[in-house]
Amino acid sequence: MRIVIDPHIHTNSSPDSSITSNQVLDGMLASGINAIAVTDHDTMEGYRRLKHSYAFREFLMIPGIEVTTDLGDIIVLGLEDPSITKDAELLIELAHEAGGLVVAPHPFDGSRVSLGERCGTLKVDLMETANGKCRGDSNRQAKEFSTVLGLPGIGGSDAHERNEIGTVVDILECEKNLESVLEGLRKGAKIIVRQRTGRC
What 3-state DSSP class applies to 200? Predict the structure, then answer.
């Protein structure tokens, strides 16, 4: 089946996001999304809240977290109870041992602490080549670097406000389950960049 996923959304469990659970649901419905990854900063609280909500029973909820590390932000997808550490290399090692997928978010955004060219030496699985909050030149640099490294790209809205949900999505043709979606992302998805869906 067709999976339309926004794999980089922050809820109000992140200190810099205003998105409530109801707003996530509204944003998903407005954007035609049937899967998301909640990737709050250094916490799984938002993901767990949505996962246990009856309102999201028809949607695929991918566990995720954006960890603040000593080398820059790193997203881990697919783990219900990931090990969290500020040591980037150890975080990646532990995530891989547990079967998680490691993403370098907004890798060349100079306004945030990002991995940048360290993606070439760290064992990340994917580079975010289309981030909804990045300027075009940052995304272009990420796309060019991922091509040089031979790393698949991934897109995500990086939503912190309701109207940002679904501005960048990934399209997959696979089964609607965690393993199939992670494998599809690992192989490389079709990335779609959209306009904002409405007012927040």
Answer: coil
In DSSP notation, 110-151 reads TTS---GGGGGTS--SEEEEEETTS-HHHHHHHHHHHHHHTP
pTM to 2 decimal places: 0.96
Furthest CA-CA distance within the chain: 43
Token pair 């809240």 is found at 49
Q: pLDDT, tens digit, for every residue of 74-94?
A: 999 999 999 999 999 999 999
Number of domains in the chain: 1
Structural domain contains residue 134: yes
Residue 69, domain CATH? 3.20.20.140
Q: For the stretch 26-54, what's the b/e string if a residue is b when 16 or more beta carbons lie within 10 angstroms of its beta carbon?
A: bbbeebebebbbbbbbbbbebbbbbbeee
Is residue 12 within 8 Å of 40, Cβ to Cβ?
no
Percent of the chain with pLDDT over 90: 95
Domain span holding position 74: 2-193
What count of Cα atoms within 13 Å lies in the side-chain half-sphere of residue 101?
Answer: 28
Domain-located, residue 21: yes
Please check whether residue 141 lies inside any domain of the structure: yes
| 200 domain residue, yes or no | no
